[in-house]
Amino acid sequence: MHAEEDKSSINSNPVTDKSTDLWKTLSNWVNAIKAGELVASNTTFILYRNKSGKIGLADIFDQAKTDEEVDVSIDQASEKMKGLGELHAAWSYYKNTIIDNKKILASIIKNFHLETGHGAGYAEVEQETRNKHVPPSQIKFLVANLNGWLVRHIAEKIAKNLDAKITWEEFDSEFRVLFHRARRLELIDFTLHFPPSNDEVALHLAMRPRYLRQVEIIQCGDDELIEAVTDYLKAKINRDRWIEDDLIDEQLAADFEDKLQRFWKNTQKKIDITNKNLTKEERGKLLMTECMVRSETIRNETPPASTIAGTYHALADKPTLGWHADWEANLKE
Predict the structure, then answer these.
(1) Which of 27, 119, 217, 293 sits at 20 to 30 Å (Cα–Cα) from 207?
(2) Cα(114)–Cα(47) distance, rounded to whole angstroms?
(3) For the stretch 17-37, what's the b/e string if a residue is b when 16 or more beta carbons lie within 10 angstroms of its beta carbon?
C-alpha cells in the first residue's frame, strides 16, 4: 500500500523543517494509522516535493532505515523544533506526532520516502508513463486526462465536505480505462486542448478561401460560414496531429476521403432525382447537410466531432467536390 502527499512551491523547498505542510502530512498519517485506515508495516509513505533545498528533517527521515537510525532522526527533529511555540501554525501537528505519538511516527519514518521533482511534475509523470508500454504519441493524452480527472475528483470531494483523498481503487479504475484507450491508439480530439484561435477563424472569414465560397454559392448565412471555418480548422488540427503521432498514415487518410467522396457523389445523384422542384441553391444546401451529418469511421473508430464536416470542406477547398450543381463554373467566375 502507498500513502502519498504532494507539496509544491513556486520559489523554494515546500517541506522545510518548520513548514506546516511537513508536520501536517506526518500528523495525517499518524491519524490514519490510529483510525485503522493504514497499517504502517505494509505501507510506503511517500512525500513528493517539486523543489529541493538544503538538507533538512525530511531528508533525514528519508535516510533513516534501521530502528536505531529512526530513533536518532526523531531526536534530531526534537532538537531542531525545540523553540517551536504553541502559537506556531505547525505546533498542533508537531505535538500530535513527536510528543503524543512518537512510536507511530517511528513506524512511519521506517517506511518513509522523500521524492524530489522539478516544476509541476508533469515531466516525471510522463517519464513514468513511458515505462508502462504506452505509445509515445499517447502519453500527453494519458497524462492530461488523468490530471483533469484528479482535479475534478478532488474538487467534488471537497464540495461534499469529504476528505480530499483518492483511494488506489479509484485511481486504478480510472487509469485502466485511459490506459486501454491509449494502448489501442484511440483517435484523440486534440482540439480539446489546442482549439482554433479566434484570429485563425477571423482570417479565414476575411480571406474567403474556396471552401467558404462554395458555402456562399448556395446562399448560406454567416452562422453557417463560421461553423464551416471552425469545422475545417478542427479537422485539420486533428488530421495533422494524427499523422504526426502515427495514429493514422497518409493512405488511411486518403481512404477516408475516398469514402466521403463516394457518399457525396451518390447523395448528389439521389437529390437531383428526388428533389427536382428545389432550386440549385436549395439542393446544394440539402446535399451539404446530408454530407455534414454523414457517419463514417477511421480504422473502425468514430472520429471526433467536426472530422467529417471539416474533411468535406477540405475536399471542397482542393476543389474535388462542391455543393452547388454548377460549383465548378461558379468557382471559375
Answers:
(1) 293
(2) 5
(3) bbbbbbbbbbbbbbbbbeeee
pLDDT digits (tens, 9 = 90+) for 219-240: 999 999 999 999 999 999 999 9
Cell of 106: 517511528
Q: What is the pLDDT of residues 146-188, one digit of tens each?
A: 778 888 888 888 888 887 778 888 888 887 777 766 666 668 8
Closest CA to 313 of 284, 292, 286, 287: 292
CA distance 80 to 18: 9
Q: What is the CA radius of gyration of the chain?
A: 30
Mean per-residue pLDDT of the chain: 85
The answer to whether 228 and 211 are in contact (CB under 8 A) is: yes
Strand pairing class (112-116; 44-49): parallel
List the domain boundaries for the chain: 1-120, 122-186, 196-332
Cβ-in-10-Å burial (0-12, 13-18, 19+) of 184 comes to: exposed
- pTM score: 0.51
User: CA separation (Å) from 310 to 154, 184, 218?
Assistant: 37, 24, 18
